[in-house]
């Protein structure tokens, strides 16, 4: 058989090239070389009597996965990683001149011009709202509906979702905006702060529908969005730290020449920068993901043992002193956040794990982490019930209690599945499906505290 004569095979190879080109570490010349190897393997398999489809599938399998090939080339050509993350499109030494010259401006540097334009738009949206409303509390309450539409637009530009998905997400933003602004919240109302927090969670998850191209029922798409969220959080934190240091340095430098720039930094740089950084962090995730592997799973490996030790120490302290049940409301909410971090560590460890590998020491460590988290969760739950019985239901306590129960159910079943996986009686895929299938429950919790809590608790 002569490779290239059959249109079916050419289409398969063209599709394979398209997937390979998604990783920026591979240049067109690299892909040409790999295609040559692929065609040689297909020729050999076809001579042995296989059909084109069979030969193609086996040849691709033997050539290696996209990730494995990308990592191999990344290790060999590490200098490319930096060149592909910089902001210009300087032609490379290996034949990328023509390809770079044909890339439209708005798609260069992995779409950085579009990300920056949307980031500026998000910053201006926050600032214009601040100037028009002149009430920082109301602007903060609307942070999600002011900024996240620009993130959804970024996803829509990159992923080209179906119109139905875009309209569904737009509808969620409209409903949230109406609730946040039409409800008659009393000044400094707890329900207003809860609604603001819930809108961030709910609308963030809804933007994932755009990122998933509307395939929100797909476990794979949900896991991809969870990976994105973890990476985004890491980059946003890094940008915030660098931005804070730069702002402090700017204030100090201008103060040395008796120029007070504090009002400008507080009123313009911080709100606009915080909003714009949402888009820059999202762009960084997409740009780096195509070049090198994710960083959130690596951090998970580091912090899982530390969080396990922290929770074990907390359990020992609670048993010895038993004063956790008398803790304040804010401390109990903080422990809920600790449990959220535990779930995040578990999810990102699952997302980074090779499903084919047998259980190892890290899987057993996760069992210990989950067991200690369950004990902490039960202790916090007892404290919450005790406080509720003594002081009655309030919006904050009820929201925290609901979140605690949701986390308890998640952690309990996750621990059960993790033990089964370590004992080789549960397939690894069930762990992934449990976590991705749980996302709608968090969305429902967030929607409840945005839409239902304010009227139930008198907008107080």
Automatic annotation (TrEMBL):
Q: Membrane: is it a keyword of this entry? A: yes
Q: Which UniProt keywords apply?
A: Membrane, Transmembrane, Transmembrane helix
Q: Which positions, given as ranges, span the membrane?
A: 114-133, 139-157, 164-186, 233-256, 268-286, 298-320, 332-353, 365-386, 398-417, 438-457
**Where would one find the signal peptide in this protein?**
none
InterPro entries (UniProt xref): Perm_prefix_1 (IPR047928)
- Keyword Transmembrane helix among UniProt keywords: yes
**What name appears for this protein in its UniProt entry?**
DUF4153 domain-containing protein
State the species of origin: Agromyces mariniharenae
């Amino acid at each position: 058989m002569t490779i290239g004569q059959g249109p079916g095979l050419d289409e398969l190879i063209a599709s394979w090239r398209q997937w390979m080109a998604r990783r920026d570490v591979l240049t067109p010349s690299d892909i040409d070389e790999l295609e040559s190897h692929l065609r040689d393997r297909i020729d050999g398999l076809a001579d042995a009597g296989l059909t084109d489809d069979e030969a193609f599938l086996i040849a691709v399998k033997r050539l290696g996965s996209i990730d494995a090939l990308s990592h191999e080339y990344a290790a060999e050509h590490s200098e490319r990683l930096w060149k592909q993350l910089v902001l210009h499109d300087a032609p490379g030494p290996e034949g990328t001149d023509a390809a770079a010259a044909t890339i439209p401006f708005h798609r260069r540097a992995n779409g950085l011009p579009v990300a920056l334009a949307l980031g500026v738009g998000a910053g201006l949206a926050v600032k214009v709202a601040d100037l028009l409303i002149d009430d920082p509390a109301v602007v903060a309450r609307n942070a999600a509906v002011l900024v996240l539409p620009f993130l959804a637009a970024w996803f829509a530009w990159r992923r080209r979702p179906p119109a139905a998905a875009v309209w569904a997400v737009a509808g969620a933003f409209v409903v949230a905006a109406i609730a946040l602004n039409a409800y008659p919240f009393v000044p400094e109302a707890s329900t207003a702060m809860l609604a603001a927090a819930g809108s961030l969670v709910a609308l963030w998850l809804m933007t994932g529908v755009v990122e998933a191209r509307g395939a929100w029922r797909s476990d794979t798409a949900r896991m991809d969005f969870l990976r994105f969220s973890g990476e985004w959080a890491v980059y946003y934190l890094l940008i915030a730290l660098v931005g804070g240091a730069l702002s402090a340095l700017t204030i100090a430098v201008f103060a040395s020449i008796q120029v007070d720039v504090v009002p400008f930094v507080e009123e313009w740089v911080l709100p606009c920068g915080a909003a714009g950084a949402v888009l820059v962090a999202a762009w960084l995730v997409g740009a780096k993901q195509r070049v090198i592997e994710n960083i959130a799973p690596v951090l998970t490996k580091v912090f899982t043992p530390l969080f396990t030790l922290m929770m074990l120490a907390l359990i020992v302290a609670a048993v010895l002193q038993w004063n956790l049940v008398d803790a304040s409301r804010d401390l109990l909410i903080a422990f809920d956040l600790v449990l959220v971090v535990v779930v995040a560590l578990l999810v990102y460890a699952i997302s980074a794990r090779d499903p084919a590998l047998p259980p190892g020491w890290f899987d057993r460590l996760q069992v210990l982490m989950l067991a200690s988290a369950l004990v902490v969760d039960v202790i916090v739950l007892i404290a919450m019930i005790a406080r509720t019985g003594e002081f009655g239901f309030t919006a904050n306590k009820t929201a925290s209690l609901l979140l605690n129960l949701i986390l308890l159910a998640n952690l309990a079943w996750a621990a059960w599945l993790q033990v089964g996986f370590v004992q080789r009686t549960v397939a690894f895929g069930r762990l992934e499906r449990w976590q991705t299938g749980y996302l709608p429950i968090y969305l429902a919790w967030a929607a409840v505290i945005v839409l239902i809590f304010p009227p139930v608790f008198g907008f107080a």
